[in-house]
Amino acid sequence: MSTIRGRVWKYGDNVDTDAIIPARYLNVSAEDELAAHCMEDMDVEFAQEVEAGDIIVAGKNFGCGSSREHAPVAIKACGVSCVVAKTFARIFFRNAINIGLPILECPDAVEGAAPDQILEIDLASGVIRNVSTGEEYRATPYPAFMLEIIDAGGLVPYTREKLNQKDKA
Amino acid sequence: MEKRRPLTMAQKILAAHVSEEVHVGDFADVEVDMVLANDITAPLAIKEFERLGVDDVFDRERITLVPDHFAPNKDIKSAEQCKLMREFAHAHGIVHYFEVGKMGIEHALLPEQGLVLPGDVVVGADSHTCTYGALGAFATGMGSTDIAVAMATGSIWMRVPETKRIIYEGELQPWVSGKDLILYTIGRIGVDGALYQALEFTGPTIDALPMSGRFTMANMAVEAGAMAGLFPVDEETEAYVSQRAERAYEVYSSDAGADYAQVIEIDASAIEPQVAFPHLPSNAKPLSRVEPIEIDQVVIGSCTNGRWDDLVQAAEILRGRQVNDNLRCIIIPGTQAIYLRAVREGLAEVFVQAGAVFSTPTCGPCLGGHMGVLAAGERCVSTTNRNFVGRMGHVESEIYLASPAVAAASAVLGHIGGPEEVLLAGQVPI
Ligand code: SF4
């Protein structure tokens, strides 16, 4: 896992997956088409102006609502390097881990961040540094089990490895 | 025998599907009894399934695929997605693939077909998979990659949740249903009030609640952030299941003294019909505090309220009355079986005579797909489960969530109101 550096896009509580990718675009599953409409109903500028490496910072219960994996897929395909939130909705959390989109829970970092500031994140240690303010925060560490999935590069490679081991046994 | 530690029913069901003992907070690979996906989530799941490098699914009788969201195909792109799922189902001999004309909205369909039973672990690439908790199953929504792995291996990782118990006491007022109980509850605990937890719905009010009301409540557990929403299995459940089950099942119940994260007691006799205002399901208000807001559309249907009892409630109000000239009323049964019964027993006629649309099953307007998308500035009273910004159409449209009774009454009145207002208005049924 590496260090991430990017610009903050800040949102509030309960950002739902209909806001992240509206259902009217779910008649496709191509990543670039989903990315083109990411956050559209909340922030029309996001998809046009987001740059590779940028970071979404949000309040409580990010990704609530529909289970659509298209939501973290769209965010990742936009080039977003990490989502930092106070808490995540359960299904979004597992979807992000499963597809290899880095996400961190850290209420203090969210409180301390403003739009367009620069954050530096060390994923291995969970340390979030707000370059613009100089403040440093520590995110809730991942449980060991999730680290295994993250280290494997997502749930598909993780499962492939497990299946291979079973075959060999 | 060694005395076991008291457990909640959620813990017991999960423990029975894991090879080792599990505790709250543990991560475990859980064996599943049924895996579900739909025309939106299956295409992604199939893509990931193919990356797994397995030849076949774990069990072709334990997977259900339903084209319900944008089906009957609403456009060419949706047609391609449905085609992809259909071809996968045929290639792998998926037994429970339901073609248009035989399908229903997945969470109304699976229980009706006896595909989910008490004590099961069910995972679905759809957040409202939690509906089956009404049967005393542990059912939870996940993403497409999860479902790909479950289809390939028959198991998937979960974190064993804590349980929050809600006890309802008292007799319900007239026209108060499961929908009102759950909207009230979400209003109290909030949209993240049960985040990462299982909810358990119990108490004398629940004992007297029909299966339809239990399905409605379990369905919306996810709107409080819950992983699952479980009901105890009783005679009502057994009566429902016994007509449908084609395999054996196990009944689990919570032990006295089991450890709960929280126990909340609710006096259900004090609950009025509820309306959840835009743009969160937790913005619930009692009907008596709702101004007569003018509306443009009413939708009665969805996995929350598209069941037989819901249509009966709507018909009681619409029989011999007319849908207000200033709005459209769209009624969508949950499954083909409900549709057929509505035709046979005259409900279809009641709805069409009243000037409502009565269509074949589909999710349609619930997620702003088709069959009733909202324009800018339009307001809709809907029996669905989400009133998020843009959920049913334009970002400037508004959704008010309510029961079938309130929705049907509002359709007659032209503004948000309850059955009693319709009856008082003196529009006597013919
Ligand atoms: S009816 Fe609505 S909530 Fe239910 S499965 Fe369909 S889209 Fe989802």
Textual characterization of the structure:
The complex is a heterodimer of chains A (169) and B (430). With 169 residues, chain A is α/β, with parallel strands linked by helices. Chain A has helices at residues 17-20, 31-35, 46-49, 70-77, 90-99, 107-111, 144-152, 155-168; strands spanning 3-10, 55-58, 82-85, 103-105, 118-122, 127-130, 136-138. A 7-stranded mixed sheet of chain A has the order 4-3-2-1-5-6-7. In chain A, α7 (144-152) packs across α8. Chain A starts with a strand and ends with a helix. Chain B is an alpha/beta fold and 430 residues long. Chain B has a 5-stranded parallel sheet with strand order 4-3-2-5-6. In chain B, strands 16-15-14-17-18 form a 5-stranded parallel sheet. In chain B, β12 (274-276) and β13 (284-286) form a beta hairpin. Chain B is globular and about 65 Å long. Classes of the chains: A alpha/beta (169), B alpha/beta (430). At the A-B interface, α4, α5, α7 and α8 of A face α2, α3 and α5 of B. Bound molecules: iron/sulfur cluster.
Order of helices and strands of chain A: EHHHEHEHEHEEEHH
Which percent range describes the beta-strand content of chain B? 15-25%
Shape of chain B: globular
Spatial extent as radius of gyration of chain B: 21 Å
Helix content of chain A: 25-40%
Structural class of chain A: alpha/beta
Task: Give the low-confidence spans of chain B.
Answer: none
Mean pLDDT of chain B: 96
Q: Biggest interface pair, residues each?
A: A-B, 42 and 51 residues
Work out the number of β strands of chain A: 7
Write down the overall mean pLDDT of chain A. Answer: 95
Question: How many individual helices of chain B?
Answer: 15
Helix content of chain B: 25-40%
Low-pLDDT runs of 5+ residues of chain A are none
Based on secondary structure, the structural category of chain B is alpha/beta
